[in-house]
Design a protein that fits this description.
This protein is mainly alpha-helical. It has a domain of 145 residues. It has 8 helices and no strands. The longest helix is centred in the middle third of the chain and has 30 residues. The termini are far apart.
């Protein structure tokens, strides 16, 4: 048989076999890489149900600011007291939020569930928020209503800390930053103007003094 005819018959078959073998080997190597060999992926932080509950508490409280702003005259004692109570709630919540974000960044070294300072910060934030919403309810003759998330800040925070405490430092830092961004409260004037901080705003009602 002519050698050229043999080559014409079998070389294409050999080429296909080699090509298929190469694909199989490449697939095997890719799927059996060790974690250190595999390409790093960007950390994506999605809002989970716990964070959503905290956001709900913020929205609930913000609606009470709008209610107080619309029902109380700016020079009335009720407006001034509501403003003061929200200022305290805003301050106490921000302190709790910052403490929790720091704990998430620190990971297991923080031991948040047994931290008395965290427990106090969470309790104070919940009580201050409740004091504000309860006052507005009473002064506007509304039935008292409070979202359970406001009274459960301590547990919600521990749930978030537990979720991220064993992650690597970069993931914890990203989670803490995302948490702060997603759950931060706005000031009274930012809420009533409907415009975020740092943006030109229309003239709000006169700001009451916070001195007792």
């Amino acid at each position: 048989m002519n050698i050229f005819l043999v080559l014409q018959m079998y070389v294409p078959m050999l080429s296909k076999s080699i090509f298929c073998a190469a694909i199989f080997i490449s697939f095997f190597l890719l799927t059996n890489q060790s974690p250190a060999q595999q390409p790093a992926s960007n950390t994506t932080i999605n809002i989970d149900s716990t964070t959503a509950d905290i956001v709900q508490a913020r929205t609930f409280t913000s609606q009470y600011v709008l209610l107080a702003n619309s029902r109380f005259k700016s020079d009335s004692p009720q407006y001034t007291q509501a403003y003061k109570l929200y200022a305290k709630a805003y301050s106490d919540y921000t302190a709790w939020n910052s403490y929790l974000a720091s704990a998430i960044r620190s990971g297991r070294t923080k031991r948040l569930p047994s931290d008395p300072k965290y427990a106090k910060a969470a309790s104070t934030a919940s009580q201050s928020a409740a004091a504000f919403t309860n006052y507005v309810d009473v002064q506007t003759s509304q039935s008292k209503a409070i979202t359970t998330a406001l009274t459960a800040l301590a547990g919600l925070g521990i749930d978030l800390w537990t979720k991220w405490s064993n992650k690597i430092s970069a993931e914890r830092t990203a989670a803490a930053t995302a948490f702060t961004t997603d759950t931060k409260w706005q000031s009274w004037n930012e809420i009533v103007s409907g415009i975020p901080s740092g943006t030109a705003k229309p003239e709000p009602k006169a700001t009451p003094t916070l001195n007792k």
